[in-house]
């Protein structure tokens, strides 16, 4: 039997981060060592509270959670994605105050401590702007030697961006931090919009979550209302939502078999022009099977089989954890015809 995978998650807990947390909590073989938050979908502080609440739904109040960077490296005010994730980041679902407290360490120290506690074994999953990791690299220059692998949900290769023509939110909201992380020299996997936009949660998935009726599954179903509304209104000509952060979580957990994932040379545009925040991937070898070049620095997931949302739902409904004090809105009464 393989040893559990030590994993630390760096997120900005919106709806899809919350689903990723529940997915990891329900995935055998994952040892979630800690969760840190950063400004992105919502503030770092709100994301940390959201994280504590979501982990409590999964019965995991033992996992340390720390709030991290409140602004990008440039110090500019972040723009929160409340129009996508709701005012509180988790679909405006009001969960009870968490019973667990935030960790006394700052987010950067939690990264460093987790890396030293599992040298050469720790995986880091980043589903948010990469500001915390950039600060951690500055405080502990040996971090790339200590961390086994980093998986980043972010960027777009052949796909358009979602906060600009080419820029995706996690990379585009702190391009300088993203470039530092990409250039750090550690083993790196990128899960871009090219795949996350093609793995879609539908109303059928939402109905299954709601019908299952546990606190975790009901929360996931209810939080998806706002997320599905946004995607139907702005993104897709049908009701469905992208599967951004959970897909990256599955890749980090080794629970996803890629169809196409070449190793490419990847950088970030940090200029002040119209391409700022673009993930620049050298794909000139696409017609020759993407032969690896000496400059290549990241495995980039470009194609999956489109079936992951089913597994995501399975993992969440497996969390049959009764959570005392948790009260979600009652299900709508069935209308008989």
Would you kindly provide a written description of the structure presented here, covering whatever features stand out?
The chain has 337 residues and is α/β, with parallel strands linked by helices. It has 13 helices and 12 strands. The protein has helices spanning 15-25, 44-57, 82-85, 107-117, 131-139, 143-146, 169-172, 175-182, 193-196, 203-212, 215-235, 244-252, 308-317; strands at residues 5-11, 30-37, 65-67, 122-126, 147-153, 188-191, 200-201, 241-242, 263-264, 266-268, 279-281, 298-300. The strands form 3 sheets. An 8-stranded mixed β-sheet has the order 3-2-1-4-5-6-12-9, sandwiched between helices. α1 (15-25) runs parallel beside α12 (244-252). The longest helix has 21 residues, at 215-235. The model is unreliable at 323-337 (pLDDT under 50).
């Amino acid at each position: 039997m393989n040893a559990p995978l030590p994993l630390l998650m760096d997120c900005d807990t919106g709806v899809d981060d919350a689903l990723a947390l529940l997915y990891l909590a329900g995935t055998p073989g994952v040892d979630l060592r800690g969760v840190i938050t950063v400004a992105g979908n919502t503030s770092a502080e709100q994301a940390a509270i959201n994280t504590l609440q979501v982990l409590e739904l999964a019965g995991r109040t033992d996992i340390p959670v720390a709030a991290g960077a409140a602004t990008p490296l440039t110090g500019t005010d972040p723009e929160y994605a409340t129009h996508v994730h709701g005012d509180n980041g988790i679909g405006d679902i009001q969960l009870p105050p968490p019973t667990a407290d935030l960790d006394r360490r700052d987010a950067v120290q939690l990264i460093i401590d987790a890396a030293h506690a599992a040298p050469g074994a720790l995986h880091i999953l980043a589903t948010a702007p990469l500001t915390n990791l950039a600060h951690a690299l500055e405080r502990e220059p040996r971090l790339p030697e200590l961390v086994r692998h980093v998986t980043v949900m972010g960027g777009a290769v052949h796909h358009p961006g979602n906060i600009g023509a080419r820029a995706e939110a996690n990379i585009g909201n702190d391009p300088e931090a993203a470039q530092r992380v990409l250039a750090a020299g550690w083993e790196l996997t990128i899960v871009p919009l090219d795949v996350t936009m093609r793995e879609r949660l539908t109303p059928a998935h939402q109905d299954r979550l709601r019908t299952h009726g546990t606190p975790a599954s009901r929360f996931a179903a209810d939080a998806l209302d706002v997320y599905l509304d946004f995607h139907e209104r702005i993104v897709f000509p049908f009701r469905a939502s992208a599967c951004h952060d959970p897909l990256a979580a599955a890749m980090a957990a080794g629970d996803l078999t890629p169809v196409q994932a070449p190793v490419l040379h990847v950088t970030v545009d940090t200029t002040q022009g119209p391409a700022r925040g673009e993930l620049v991937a050298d794909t000139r070898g696409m017609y020759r099977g993407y032969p690896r070049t000496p400059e290549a620095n990241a495995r980039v997931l470009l194609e999956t089989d489109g079936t992951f949302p089913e597994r995501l739902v399975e993992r969440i409904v497996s969390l049959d954890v009764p959570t005392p004090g948790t009260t979600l809105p009652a299900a709508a009464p069935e209308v008989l015809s």
